[in-house]
Every structure is written in structure tokens, then in C-alpha cells.
From TrEMBL:
The gene is iolE. Residues 34-293 form the Xylose isomerase-like TIM barrel domain. This is Myo-inosose-2 dehydratase. GO terms for molecular function: myo-inosose-2 dehydratase activity. The keyword Lyase applies. It comes from Paenibacillus enshidis. PANTHER family: HYDROXYPYRUVATE ISOMERASE, INOSOSE DEHYDRATASE. InterPro entries: IolE/MocC (IPR030823), IolE/XylAMocC-like (IPR050312), Xyl_isomerase-like_sf (IPR036237), Xyl_isomerase-like_TIM-brl (IPR013022). It is an enzyme of class 4 (lyase). It holds the Pfam family AP_endonuc_2.
Amino acid sequence: MSKLPFRLGIHPINWVGEDVKEHGEDTTCEQILDDIQRLGLTGTEMGRKYPTDPEVLREELNKRGISLVSQWKSVLFSDPAYRQSELDSYRRHAEFLQSMGSVVISTAEVGGSLHFDPRRTPHEKEVLRLGEQEWYSLAEGLNAAGAIAREHGLKLTYHHHGGTVVEQPEEIDRLMELTDPKLVYLLYDTGHAYYGGADPLEVLRKHYDRIAYIHLKDVRPHVLEEARAEGSDFVGCIRKGVFTVPGDGCINFGAIVQELITRGYDGWAMLEGEQDPAIHNPYAYASRSLQYLHSLLEQQPGTERSPQL
């Protein structure tokens, strides 16, 4: 059981890759959920190996005492031509999550992204940053989607994400400025903040009042440096092992956990690794990461991080 003052769960991406399909391809839903139960955690996000039938999924989760906290939802709001179809899809997504008792919708814009934008070709090599009108269209779409989420008792939490148009610290700032704080919240991701060039602690402090959901992910800086020297894109970085669980990289989680405790954060945070499970055993890494996070409760603010996993 987690001793942290906020609610700690774990993402199935530790066992099965979402963007790198070969990672954990042979892993079953039962393996993932059994491991989560063994870890003593009670929250998860939707994963591609989970049953899509709500009744079957609910049964599998309930018998292990696990809640479905959220599910990723890609949107393409930066192009107004997609607005209505995207909102219709968002409503169906919200209906599903409401039926599962979820609390937030992890939401990210795919327009301009290298891997996720359906309008891009396989031979392009860079993210297409947004122009002014695209920013305003994105904000309007997110506000409308946020209203749908609220109708269903959920919060839209925007996931700033590597390889997308809301990745860098100034892009996170812009999105927060343009959207309605009562409709659009922030999914604060430590690993993606670092990947996007931000200091994760600064992002937390600057936007805390908008944060309604958290992903706790670490980064191996030497691997990231090597990947960028080779010109690797976001998915290439995952394949190289840039990301890992808290306690196995360079991010100062001691300061982050202390900030969350001081601020009184009581929402959900998901433990994430997003690495090859054949090399990095998901259960073992998660178990040691939990020990690391719990050890931070006994340390004073500013204490150096524990040894790597």
C-alpha cells in the first residue's frame, strides 16, 4: 500500500507500450492487473490489452480492487474542420469513462505531431508548431471538450507530451493562458516536462492551480543526449530507453514530492516507466520505485535522491 498522501496508481504502459507496439506485445491483461494488485496499488489507466467491453473490464478491475482513473484521448482541435467530429468522439469517450467511475480524461492535441497526426506522411521529420489561428482553434475546442467532460462529472486534463505541439515550457504556458481554468486542467507529467526542455519542479510550481492529474516518470539523461545526437524522434527515444520509473533517472523527485505534500495535493498520480519490459521487468522496477518514493517521505526538503535502481 502506498504511504504517500496523494492517491498513487500505475499506468499499464510499464508493461505494454502504447507508441512502441512491440514492447510487451505478448503480455496479457491478467498479468498486468495481477502485478498491480501485488504492488498494492488501486488505480490504473486504460491500456490496449484491457478488455474494451465495460462489463468485462469492470469485473476484472473490481475483483482486484482497482479503479480505472482515466484513459488517453487524442484530439485534433487545431484544425476547425475536425471540430464537430472530434467533439462527438469526445462525448462518447466521456460516457465510457463516466460509466467506469473515472475522474479525469487524459487529453492531447495530435495536430502537427510527427507520429499521431493523421494528416502527416511517414517521411516527415519534424513537429509542425502551431500558428496563431491554430492555437485559438485548439483552445476553443478544448474548452468545448472540457464542458463535455464536466457534464459527465469528469475533468479534462491536458497532457503536455513529447513529439506534439504542446511539449515545450512556453507551449504549456500558452495553452494554460488561452483555455478556461474551469474547463481545462493540466496533466502534469514529470518525464515529458524534462523531455520538452522544462524544469519539472518549475512547471509544477507555476501551474499547480491547474493540475488535476499527474504522471510520475523519470528520464535517463545520458540516453536522451545520445538519442538527440543521433536525431531520434520521440518514438525512437522510447525505443532507446530514454524514459524510466522514478528513482532510476535524473529528476529530483524529492523536491517534487515535497512540493505536492506542502500544497496538499490529494488527486491521482500514475507511476510510469515506458521502457522495454523485456529488459526492465515492470513489476521489479515498479516495486523498487515505490520503495524510492516512500523513502522520500523520510527525507528533508532538498535531500539528494537515493541510489539508482
